[in-house]
Amino acid sequence: SNVLRMSSHIQIKTKTAPQKSKTSSPLPCSPEPAIKPQPKPSDKLNPKTIDPFGAYSQPTSAFAATYAKGGIPCRLVHGSVKHKLQWECLPETVPFDPLLVTLAEGLRETKHPYTFVSKEGFRELLQVEGAAEKAIPLLPRLVPVLKATLAHADDEVFGRGLDALVQLSAVVGPSLNDHLKHLLTNLSRRLMDKKFRERVTVTLQKLEQYGGKPTVAIIKSKIPTYCSI
């Protein structure tokens, strides 16, 4: 009987213990500091955890910063088949200085939508009436930017640089010849790559087509193996 009383007494204590803990008031301070959960590496890649005002989400390039501030007067419009640009005003009324240079700098971007906006904006701006008169004075600033684009390690960035160079040459014509030597070194280097050999050759032929006969001598001074069209 004593054993039964002791066991029943223990059972009563075990049942009443949780009830005491519920009614007891919390301590004014925890005896141990609360441990904050460590952020997971995947949290940085999860869009739900990105704070738009956080330091790490701020634009990391000059073009991205200009785009975020509304300094690029066009925006990407997502279409059902393909994307296009929507200009806030007619491209003919937009000053080329400094927008054309800014768009050229954006060719080195590797993130969406900066890649599309810079590439398409540069092309469309050069298509406006009177583009040659507006672009030629900017060549001393455009050529170093295109040179950096053609020197980029990313293949897609290099490809955008080739397209932009051809587009610019088609507009300014022989005016590009005075600056062409600065661009040929990077073209010569990529000419050795089988992946870009044909595309670089076509680019050189386009430069000759738009630049005239003097362009051939300039190209051969840096690329002796070039064959004139």
From TrEMBL:
InterPro entries: ARM-like, ARM-type_fold, Parkin_co-regulated_protein. Residues 1-51 are annotated as: Disordered. Residues 28-40 have a biased composition (Pro residues). SUPFAM superfamilies: ARM repeat. Residues 1-27 have a biased composition (Polar residues). It holds the Pfam family ParcG. Signal peptide: none annotated. This is PACRG-like.
